[in-house]
Amino acid sequence: MVKVLFVCLGNICRSPMAEGLMRQYLVQENIQEVAVSSAATSTWEHGNPVHPGTKAILQREGIDTNQMFSTPVKASDFAEYDFIIGMDRQNVKDLKARAPHEYQDKIFLYLDAVEGHHNQDVPDPWYTGDFEETYRLLELGLDPWKIRFLNK
Ligand code: 4NP
Hints:
With 152 residues, the protein is an alpha/beta fold. The protein has helices spanning 14-28, 52-60, 77-80, 89-98, 125-128, 131-150, and strands spanning 2-8, 34-40, 83-86, 107-109. Helix 1 packs parallel to helix 2 (52-60) and helix 1 packs across helix 6. The longest helix is centred in the last third of the chain and has 20 residues, at 131-150. The protein is globular, with a radius of gyration of 14 Å. 4-nitrophenyl phosphate (4NP) binds at residues 8-14, 44-45, 124, 126. 4-nitrophenyl phosphate binds next to loops.
């Protein structure tokens, strides 16, 4: 099993959206050997459900969010996961600061997989209010990330 962790600051807006969209995409593509989850670099929203803006978008796409609750990144996650994918450059910086040196290469920036968007952040709708923009950018990463997961 290839294990993937999407990470953002609160784990209520961007990373649960990425998790939900990728899980659905992998089902549609009939890929069973990749497992996805998500987590927060902060503890601020620990235990809270997804943001209503993310919930609305995922529900529209037919994805249930009722079992999704914010959880902080754990020290054991760096050994556990094969891909640890931050939504923005600050997430990547925070993850790299916490990861043991042997796991630094597991940490990626989401949009680095998307042609034309390298080194760009997935905007945080907690601040922008624009959940659709976040959704459009996350969609662009589904296929390129799938290919990377399968090439692991
Ligand atoms: P996320 O957005 O990192 O995409 O889940 C945020 C959610 C909560 C907060 C910041 C960003 N917060 O400050 O609580």
